[in-house]
């Protein structure tokens, strides 16, 4: 291959990489899982000045949680018999059945999420000292 | 003396190896975790009228059964299939661990085993994050718990049973309790691979183009020298001078 062809190919590859990088940053750079859920699902209720929000979807819970996790990869997840819990840097996303084939989707910031879902994530995503059985989560024994 | 030392070394290895424990050592669930899982499943079974359970078989590299981890809403070590359970649903997985010297890799298969018509399928489990990598990973116990506890939620979704209530805690929590281990950037976790690929293309392309350009310049410079022939002859004479010295 001639020198000129190699230079052109190298610059072309760099150009493709730069364009891909620009598209990636332009389409995803400012997003978050909270925005994604807000854009995609119907807002039902807001609490604590927007720190906690509840959304609704006609799609079944497994489809909703799959879709959210595919768009924004969670750092951790807990499945429970009552719903699915996804953990992100600043938010908790919880998806459960609405009893009619659709889903309820809760988005809480970390602090509110830990309080609201203490019975499910306590001991797994933070400290857990409650002696109350009503607040029983998986507890510190979960996992190795 | 050498024999004695060698014998002692072999004995020491024989003592240590079983203590280290291979990947996929049984039981996968520690007793407290298994008991808690069984208790959670019992609650679900009472509401939904379906007995839930887990059954994880671990095979060695020859696909010979090394052991089983079994439990259900009836208790740890008890299968869900029982006369007391007209409807049952079990998360079943087969984990095969190969030796380090083997060419084949560790593998995991899983499914929902049930006598309930319309029970969830493997695809349903995959949608809620159950996969082979997790079952073969460090936190295989968490993977088994997540897979098993998804069964009541999936049964509700498929209209096989009523959903369990998801109760939010409306009271305060102990002051000392707080979230820990806040994860890193969501963006990097999700798009880091694409970022790295784009970066490799940009840097790789520029390096290649730069290297080709410099090499071309050198080549053309050498070519000019060849045409004049003065440079080479000068070098030769310099070498000759050096040799003479």
Write a structural description.
The complex is a heterodimer of chains A (144) and B (245). Chain A is an alpha+beta fold. Chain A has helices spanning 3-28, 33-40, 61-71, 110-116, 118-121, and strands spanning 42-47, 52-57, 76-80, 83-87, 91-97, 103-109. Chain A is built from 5 helices and 6 strands, in the order H-H-E-E-H-E-E-E-E-H-H. Chain A has a 6-stranded antiparallel β-sheet. Helix content of chain B is 51%, strand content 15%. Chain B is built from 7 helices and 5 strands, in the order H-H-E-E-E-E-E-H-H-H-H-H. In chain B, strands 3-2-1-4-5 form a 5-stranded mixed β-sheet. In chain B, a hairpin with a 5-residue loop joins strand 1 (51-59) and strand 2. The longest helix of chain B has 43 residues, at 186-228. Chains A and B meet through helix 1, helix 3, strand 3, strand 4 and strand 5 of A and helix 2, helix 5 and helix 6 of B.
Protein topology:
The complex is a heterodimer of chains A (144) and B (245).
Chain A: H1 3-28, H2 33-40, E1 42-47, E2 52-57, H3 61-71, E3 76-80, E4 83-87, E5 91-97, E6 103-109, H4 110-116, H5 118-121
Antiparallel strand pairs in A: 1-2, 2-6, 3-4, 4-5, 5-6
Chain B: H1 2-20, H2 31-48, E1 51-59, E2 65-72, E3 75-76, E4 88-96, E5 107-114, H3 122-127, H4 132-136, H5 140-157, H6 186-228, H7 230-244
Helix pairs in contact in B: 2-5
Largest sheet of chain A: 6 strands, antiparallel
| Quaternary organisation | heterodimer
Report the order of strands and helices of chain B.
Answer: HHEEEEEHHHHH
Largest sheet of chain B: 5 strands, mixed
State the helix count of chain B: 7
Q: How many beta-strand segments of chain A? A: 6
Separation of termini of chain A?
A: 56 Å
CA gyration radius of chain A, whole angstroms: 21 Å
Largest interface: A-B, 77 and 76 residues
Proportion in helices of chain A: 25-40%
Which strand order do you get reading across the main beta sheet of chain A? 1-2-6-5-4-3
The rounded Rg of chain B comes to 32 Å
């Amino acid at each position: 291959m001639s020198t000129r062809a190699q230079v052109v190919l190298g610059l072309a590859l760099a150009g493709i990489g730069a364009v891909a990088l620009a598209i990636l940053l332009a389409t995803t750079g400012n997003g978050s899982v909270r925005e994604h859920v807000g854009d995609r699902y119907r807002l039902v209720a807001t609490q604590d000045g927007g720190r906690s929000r509840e959304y609704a979807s006609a799609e079944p819970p497994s489809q909703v949680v799959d879709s959210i996790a595919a768009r924004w990869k969670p750092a951790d997840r807990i499945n429970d018999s009552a719903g699915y819990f996804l953990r992100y840097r600043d938010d908790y996303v919880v998806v459960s059945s609405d009893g009619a084939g659709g889903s309820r989707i809760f988005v809480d910031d970390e602090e509110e999420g830990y309080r609201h879902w203490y019975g499910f994530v306590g001991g797994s995503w933070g400290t857990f000292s409650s002696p109350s059985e009503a607040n029983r989560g998986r507890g510190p024994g979960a996992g190795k | 003396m050498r024999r004695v030392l060698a014998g002692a070394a072999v004995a020491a290895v024989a003592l240590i190896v079983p203590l280290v424990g291979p990947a996929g050592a049984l039981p996968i669930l520690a007793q407290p975790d298994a008991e808690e899982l069984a208790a959670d499943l019992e609650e679900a079974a009472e509401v939904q009228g379906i007995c839930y359970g887990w059954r994880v078989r671990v095979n060695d590299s020859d696909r010979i059964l090394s052991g089983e981890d079994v439990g259900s809403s009836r208790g740890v070590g008890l299968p869900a299939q029982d006369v007391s359970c007209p409807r049952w649903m079990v998360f079943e997985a087969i984990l095969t661990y190969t030796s380090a010297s083997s060419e084949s890799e560790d593998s995991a298969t899983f499914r929902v085993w049930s006598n309930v018509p319309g029970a969830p399928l493997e695809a349903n489990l995959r949608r809620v994050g159950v996969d082979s990598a997790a079952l073969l990973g460090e936190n295989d116990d968490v993977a088994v718990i997540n897979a098993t506890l998804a069964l009541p939620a999936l049964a509700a979704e498929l209209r096989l049973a009523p959903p369990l209530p998801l109760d939010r805690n409306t009271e305060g929590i102990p002051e000392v309790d707080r979230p820990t281990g806040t994860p890193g950037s969501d963006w990097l976790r999700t798009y880091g691979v694409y970022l790295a690929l784009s970066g490799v293309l940009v840097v790789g392309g520029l390096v290649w183009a730069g290297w080709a350009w410099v090499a071309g310049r050198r080549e053309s410079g050498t070519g000019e020298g060849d045409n004049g022939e003065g440079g080479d002859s000068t070098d030769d004479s310099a070498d000759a001078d050096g040799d003479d010295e």
